[in-house]
Amino acid sequence: MGCYYRSLFYSLAGFTLITLVVLSGLTRSLDEYAYAHFRAYNSLVVLVTETASIGFLGVAWLILVAVSFFRSRRLGKLTFKLGLLLVVSAVLDAVLKLVFRIPRPGGGAVPEGLLRALEFFSYPSGHATRAVAISLLLGGEYGYPWNILLYTWATAVCLTRVLLGVHWLSDVVGGAAAGFIVSYATEILDIPVRRLLKLIHLDFILGSM
Q1: Predicted confidence (pLDDT) at residue 209 exceeds the cutoff of 60
Q2: CB–CB of 22/176 below 8 Å?
């Protein structure tokens, strides 16, 4: 467990450094160049980016929950951890977007309503955060060659956010860094959250997990 705390500390430090550089405006020229010159909109790009959407991952998680009732306990534990990861990433993504309030490419006025505001702000990229966090978690669980495939998927998701023009390049870099934070935070919170659910008599949520 100690290694997770150490890794979380380094991840927080790395994200803080990247964020300071972004907020200083040093990445603006590179962001604008990438936005102007690296664009592609086609079915494959959209398909890849959607695999890291909260909707797609939520449905995939529910399927895993159903399957875990008929398979090994190991799958159940991993399914619970993935659900926790999605919650942690959603909370962190919302908080960071509202704190930094960096508009997406195209700008415009900030819309009314929390959900619309979250969609308007771009730093860090939630898709990048989720993709990197999941690839680290599952890659560590299953090892080679699955980790290579997962890291490739995460990289592709990050690239699609820039290609679609919905994020600045710096958003994706910051999102990837946040993904490390989410992954290690999930590992640290896993057992305490399980114990809390049992303590408040909500352990039925764990089911076969």
Answers
A1: no
A2: no
Q: How far apart are CA 7 and CA 11, in angstroms?
A: 6
Is 201 a residue of the active site?
Answer: no
Q: At what angle do helices 126-142 and 146-163 cross, to 10 degrees?
A: 170
What architecture (CATH level 2) is domain 2-205?
Up-down Bundle (1.20)
Ranges of each domain in the chain: 2-205
The model's pTM is 0.91
Least confident of 17-21, 26-30, 101-105, 202-206: 202-206
The catalytically annotated residue of 76, 88, 92, 127 is 127
Active-site annotation holder among 81, 161, 167, 194? 167
Residue 107 has pLDDT above 80, yes or no: no
- pLDDT at position 113: 63
Mean model confidence pLDDT for the chain: 90
Determine whether 167 is an active site residue: yes
